[in-house]
């Protein structure tokens, strides 16, 4: 647990998975990226799924919610999915259950961030957090419900349509505060409406950057995922965000990093590094 003014922050886990190392580093050659991470015999690199729980007076907020338990076995094999320990275990570790979540905030609706929003109930798919409202940016909902051939595999309708059917979605349109002290900022890049979430209290900032900087190995500005639809937009946003995070000593949460959940980015002698922060 990390205290940030009025907030308690808990980095949670919904297990691990693996994605092709080449796809994770875009134009960066394997001779370089394989110094930072080790691929398995199918060229997949280890990745985590780390939703962030934010507790404040009488409110329990979840930022992203992992992949969930609906992935069919064939895809689970392709993605090396390991949910031996998943979000329910992680919530139980801090004395909570899925029913304690009041609000879910989505960075974007890709399956590895938002698959956990719904769950099977017999032959139906229903909201997984029964007492929660789900805050979703309208543009991301539009993109997710109108996929094209390049992003279709990431937007699985069963992960979000049942929420609208159940009437539990609150849409918002623009950048800015979505809850007291919590705001959403569009980066684009990875997806047209991908955003990072800022938690701010008493002058301190925690930044949940999702796929803008998915792991600490992606700190170099041109180390950008091949998955990104608009890589130049990712580059421009990283060039803006990282100096801001260094100057403001933001606590940056790396949603997919297999080892480091959060850290402060520092610059020493022109070199950038991560000072890990216990969560
Ligand atoms: Zn992702």
What is the name of the CATH superfamily? Answer: Ribonuclease Z/Hydroxyacylglutathione hydrolase-like
**How are helices and strands ordered from N to C?**
EEEHHEEEHHEHEEEHHEEEEEHEEE
Q: Which architecture would the CATH scheme give at its second level?
A: 4-Layer Sandwich
Report the sheet with the most strands, covering strand number, pairing sense and barrel closure: 7 strands, mixed
**Text of the CATH class:** Alpha Beta
Number of domains: 1
The total count of strands amounts to 18
Kindly state the percentage of residues in helix: 10-25%
**Spatial order of the strands in the main sheet?**
1-2-5-6-7-10-11
Q: Regions with pLDDT < 50 over 5+ consecutive residues?
A: none
Gyration radius, rounded = 18 Å
What's the CATH topology label?
Metallo-beta-lactamase, Chain A
Euclidean distance between termini CA atoms: 5 Å
Overall, the morphology is: globular
Rounded mean pLDDT score: 97
The distinct bound ligands, ions and cofactors come out as: zinc ion
